[in-house]
Amino acid sequence: MIGIIGFGRFGKLMAAYLAKDFAVKIYNRSDKASEIREIGAVPADLADVCAQKVVILSVPISKMQEYLQNISPLLRKDAVVADVCSVKVYPLQWMKELLPETVSILASHPMFGPDSAADSLHDRKIVLCRERMDDARYEKIKSWMTAKGMIVIESTAEEHDRQIAVSLSLTHFIGRSLEEFGAKELIIDTEGYKRLLHILGVVSHDTWQLFSDMNRYNPYAKEKREAFMRAMQQTEEKLKS
Q: pLDDT tens-digit profile of 10-45?
């Protein structure tokens, strides 16, 4: 019933939850058949995965156009295709351009990951950007999410990317900068410093590719990042006065 393309850290998390309620088939470029079976899903080839009613792409955004071109002729005419990228403007644009017009599209961004949602989806946020999907299908998907305790945020792709450029991209930029600085635990510390180290801990579990992609493919990330660096410089100048 559900096909998932990609079995990385998030793909594995998503598949584990979905497999509790649905039949799930998963395609991954490298062989992870044993891991897929362990969570109750079925390893399958790309054509089989694309034959399912719902197809979810859990792939790096830098690979998404390639995958969309490959799966387009393999999809059912009435399929729902969703993505889970951390940016939304470009993925939604590509899905509209490269997928058949009969296919329903749901751009999504789960605001959680393998660490924060390891035990439960309760109170975890997910952003949905609905595109050419009938009410019945959309409400069915949304109802499953709310039944799991998830907080559904409905948004346009543009508004999502504007806000996420600060709440995610800028946060990761600060975390990566702390890593470059060499921030570490200290005996003489403060609660504020501990919070900074928490940011460092969060980003250290994610790949550099994810960090690069969330900045490269978010049309608002650069301006927010540069505005933050200007603010830092202005603060430095005030100390000199």
A: 999 999 999 999 999 999 999 999 999 999 999 999
For residue 141, what are the contacts with CB-CB under 8 A and spacing of at least 6? 54, 80, 106
pLDDT, average across residues 93-117: 95
Beta bridge partners of 25: 3, 42
Q: Please name the fold of domain 2-155.
A: Rossmann fold (3.40.50)
Domain ranges of the chain: 2-155, 159-240
- Considering all CA atoms of the chain, what is the largest pairwise distance in Å, rounded to the nearest integer? 66
The number of residues making up the chain comes to 241
Q: How far apart are CA 149 and CA 153, in angstroms?
A: 13
Global pTM reads 0.91
- Calculate the alpha carbon distances from 189 to 45, 47, 115, 175, 197 in Å: 52, 55, 25, 18, 11
pLDDT, tens digit (0-9, with 9 covering 90-100), for 133-172:
999 999 999 999 999 999 999 999 999 999 999 999 999 9
Nearest to 13 by CA among 86, 117, 106, 93: 117
Q: b vs e for 64-103, b when ≥16 Cβ sit within 10 Å of the residue's Cβ?
A: beebbeebeebbbeebbbbbbbbbbbbbbebbeebbeeeb
Tell the residue number behind the tokens 């975390």, with chain if given: 175
CA-nearest of 94, 124, 133 to 14 is 124
- The whole-angstrom separation of Cα 115 and Cα 202 is 9
For the chain, give the percent of residues with pLDDT over 90.
92
Rounded Cα–Cα distance for residues 155 and 144 (Å)? 18
* pLDDT(5) > 90: yes
